[in-house]
Amino acid sequence: MDGPTNAPRKKPVPRPSPESEHYWQAAREHRLELPRCNACGQLWFPPSQSCPHCLAADFNWTPVSGLGKVFSFVTYHRVYHPAFASDVPYVVALVELKEGPRLLTNIVGVPPDKVACEMRVQVVFDDYGEDVAVPKFTPVEAASTS
Amino acid sequence: MIEPSRELRDVCAIVGTGHSRLGRVPGVSSLDLLVEAMHNAIADAGVKLTDIDGIICRGPDESYAHHQQIGARLGINARFSTTLDNGGASQILGVALATMAIKAGMASTVIVGFGRDSWSRTHSSKEANVRNETRPDSLLAHEFGPEYGYFGAVAAHAFGAMRHMHLYGTTRSHFGAVAVAFREHALRNPDAQMRKPLTMGQYHEAPPVVAPFGLLDCSLRSDAAGAVIVTSRERARDLHQPPVSIKGFGSFNNLRGWFADDYMVTTAAKNSGEAAYRMAGIGPDDVGTAQIYDCFTYMVLTQLEDYGFCKKGEGGPFVASGALRMGGRLPTNTSGGQLSEAHAEGMLQVVEGARQMRHTYPAERQVAGAEIALVSGHGGNQVCHSTLILGRA
After folding, report:
1. Which residues in chain A have their CB less than 8 angstroms from residue B127's CB?
2. How do residues B99-121 score in pLDDT, each as one tens digit?
3. All domains of chain A, ordered by start, with CATH?
4. What are B18-62's pLDDT values in tens digits?
5. Which positions in chain B have a beta carbon within 8 angstroms of at least one beta carbon in chain A?
6. H or E stretch including B247?
């Protein structure tokens, strides 16, 4: 048991469920894919085995554009986990994808005080290691000039 | 829309209120704090322990079979006994369930309470502090949060605050007006955890936590418990205190999630409040004092809008006008709230609402002329809400 300790800790990595295994596998290959219902055509997130819009269990993993806008965001100044001590201040945002679903994520490549609601963003992948990549978002303008 | 039953209006009363020692109470468990509050409520009401045949409570999140442990410590059996699971919305739901149980003949006198030892668990020693600051990764969510450095209730509510600021031009000074007003109320409450005055300047100087929230937007870590006793209006006549009538209640749960639709700016308080108003047969203009679940400053502002005390988006100017202060249009969280009195997950708001409706406070703490008190409860991952409407009997 990892009790109270001052030992350095790594950032938590996703521990996929059977439902989210494909999502993280696609992310590892730098693709953003969401379940799309074959009965009603809607996308959803987080992944689950049946469509929350019509309860059909027939779906396919579908690539999405990776484009969206910031619905809302917060800026962490306080360190809640030692692995993020050198990251503060950092932005956690809720991004609404062009296709509809909202993802919790980080906004990177822009100072926290330049992030705003409705800002247009696009996905980038942050490799946490060989086996894990995490989708994050960056302003569309920043991505096109880099 | 389903019409709430009017047969429950003015059928039951809160006849006893109690709170434990509040703030920093080292060496006392959450169970013993709750038993302390319950003993105080029983003495306040003038009922015998053996008159109580119902227990409704909610333990800290990690506890199991909490009502059984409370019954054992009180030394009583009960006809009706259960533990609720709606976070900070549970406490009002407990009063509602007590009323339903009494009306159904399942119990006659029900004690409802909540207690926790959050200060002791997090601040009482260096070890406690380290333990609190370094949660083992095995206890974190598995995905879609921790990998992004997303932890805790502060950030979840800050998302709503930021969205509200974007949509309606709400400012940090509006949030500060809530914190300052409640601190003024705490200064009149000798049992409150926070006993020093707070200025708007100090509010703005406090360190940021998760922006837009700073330290003084956040409620307290408290050792605290509260309890109330509910019985029929008929039985209430023979007891010590002026009975406080339970006029209505409601609940609503945005189970699709805080991040869905616009729930972070138009909360479940809206539907919960409408149901409670309909049961009570009143509207927001009839409410003389509000006791609002103030886990964070912003949550007060947005719930006041959802309850119809002002229009959606106008909560900032409403709180900045001084409306929440004693003598204002709607004196709110008159014991100091969770921001300045103590945090017992909404239970102390129920206690204070009932006390205001007795009209036995000294003048400096009494909301003069208030005939109706509205109490709110909010919790469970920000999606559960409950509303209680109390009146002078």
Report:
1. 4
2. 999 999 999 999 999 999 999 99
3. 18-63 (no CATH), 65-146 (2.40.50.840)
4. 999 999 999 999 999 999 999 999 999 999 999 999 999 997 766
5. 127, 130-131, 134-138, 140, 142-152, 155, 158-160, 162-163, 166, 207-213, 259-260, 264
6. strand B244-253
